[in-house]
């Protein structure tokens, strides 16, 4: 495995229409990753990858990210057991975003709250003209206190 | 309509389990938006929103973003006619990402290359142990030169 990707070409057509994987990492060295369930297409989470995380994800077939909160490489599911087996990786037009289609192991839960998806609240308008968040009724698939330990 | 959102609470439980919409905009004042087709769930694009773009999206039901390349508010489809009617807006656990479920008008194309989705290339391993990008066979739904003008 090479441990770096080639620099993005300055030629826009080559970047957008070419066959070369040249991720456009941002100033922090990251690209954004959208993660969906390969089965039903549900959006499970949004995360970030540095070059090493993307390289490891391609190489091992298990999703790796860069945790911005913990400032370290993060093999998804290393604590919870909810690993992500990657079935497909896609790049967007200007190669600064990655789409992962995955099968989740363990509890089939991706969110640290124990839910299947991190997107468990929708925006709804209130009678008073404002907005609020309404949670899905679906109960969590695991107890975070039990899986991660109480702080 | 108020033109600002409340600051995110310092209490993690309130941020993650509460009903208050308190987006966690980054240092550049942006949250990331994942956009899917409300019909079949296909991931169409990834973009960014500042407070005004999110507010306008909620208020008008049409997706607005902040264009980082053009450094200005961007009503999606203002040039191409491929607007996005928003059917649902979701927030992720820590409220720094938004999921929009949309119906695309016009050519039913979201990408500036004329394709339905920006994620039209998948990563595949090559016989030599490397990787390359393979484009979907689906032809573009519009001609960018015609829609945006050459250059």
UniProtKB/TrEMBL annotation, chains A, B:
Reaction it catalyzes: 1-(5-phospho-beta-D-ribosyl)-5'-AMP + H2O = 1-(5-phospho-beta-D-ribosyl)-5-[(5-phospho-beta-D-ribosylamino)methylideneamino]imidazole-4-carboxamide; 1-(5-phospho-beta-D-ribosyl)-ATP + H2O = 1-(5-phospho-beta-D-ribosyl)-5'-AMP + diphosphate + H(+)
Pathway(s) annotated for this protein in UniProt: Amino-acid biosynthesis; L-histidine biosynthesis; L-histidine from 5-phospho-alpha-D-ribose 1-diphosphate: step 3/9; Amino-acid biosynthesis; L-histidine biosynthesis; L-histidine from 5-phospho-alpha-D-ribose 1-diphosphate: step 2/9
Region (Disordered): 131-151
Binding site residues for Mg(2+): 92, 94, 96
Compartment annotation: Cytoplasm
Cofactor: Mg(2+); Zn(2+)
Assembly information from the UniProt record: Homodimer.
Family: In the N-terminal section; belongs to the PRA-CH family.
Name of this chain's protein: Phosphoribosyl-AMP cyclohydrolase
